[in-house]
Write a structure and sequence with these properties.
Blueprint lengths: L1 E6 L19 H8 L5 E7 L20 E4 L2 E4 L23 E7 L22 H7 L4 E7 L4 H11 L3 E10 L3 H13 L3 E3 L6
Parallel strand pairs: 1-2, 1-6, 2-5, 6-7, 7-8
Antiparallel strand pairs: 3-4
The chain binds pyrazine-2-carboxylic acid (VGL) and zinc ion.
The site of pyrazine-2-carboxylic acid (VGL) has 9 residues, from loops.
Protein name: Nicotinamidase
Family: Belongs to the isochorismatase family.
Pfam families: Isochorismatase (PF00857)
């Protein structure tokens, strides 16, 4: 059994959003078509409280994209984004959502960031995604969404750690930083992940 995991296809990560990923909107028609090829589609949603410490606005004298530390981990400071209950946190209205059976929210703990759909960055808490997928009999996990160098990358690493055969759909992701994604891509391949084009899916 295979599943498609849609990562953070939310207004704030799309052009015009608070933390826009260049060309992020271009993945949506691809993702909508892809969903037809899967029996199970699951999504993640970045879902921050307004006092989230990944926000530069919560650190005196810091600007977005500067570095700090949270609970001993290096942390990029972001513009305020994906605030719980706001339009920025909603899925893009052109994203097909009828097939999404479950939505795993992350980033709710204000003390730590949470890139992966499986665990927060400090592995303090699980979202339950791995057990959910195993419970559905999923062995192969296909990833699409935003951003390729953060939430897609961290989700791919955890998927591999959790024993899923992991495929990143390279035409259905976009990165915040191209260099960041180049490094992430090498790491995913080294860890045994596969990077494919959606046209290779049967
Ligand atoms: C993401 C930065 C901060 C992502 C989420 O979805 O890749 N990136 N929060
Ligand atoms: Zn976030």
């Amino acid at each position: 059994m295979r599943a498609l995991l849609l990562i953070d296809i939310q207004n704030d990560f799309l052009p015009g959003g608070a933390l826009a990923v260049a060309e992020g909107d271009q993945i949506i028609p691809i993702v909508n078509t892809l969903q037809e090829q899967f029996e199970l589609v699951v999504a993640t949603q970045d879902w921050h409280p307004s006092d989230h410490k990944s926000f530069a606005s919560k650190h005196e004298g810091k600007e977005p994209f500067e570095m700090t530390e949270l609970l001993g981990l290096p942390q990029v400071l972001w513009p305020d984004h994906c605030l719980q209950g706001t339009t920025g946190a909603d899925f893009d209205p052109t994203l097909e959502t009828k097939k999404i059976e479950a939505i795993f929210r992350k980033g709710t703990n204000p003390e730590i960031d949470s890139y992966s759909g499986f665990y927060d960055n400090g592995r303090l808490k699980s979202t339950g995604l791995a057990d959910y997928l195993r419970g559905k009999g999923v062995r192969q996990l296909y990833l699409a969404g935003l951003a390729a160098d953060y939430c897609v990358y961290y989700s791919a690493k955890d998927a591999l750690d959790e024993g899923f055969e992991t495929f990143v759909l390279e035409d259905a992701i976009r990165a915040i930083s191209q260099e960041g994604y180049a490094t992430a891509r090498r790491d995913i391949l080294e860890r045994g992940g596969k990077i494919i084009h959606s046209s290779e899916l049967l």
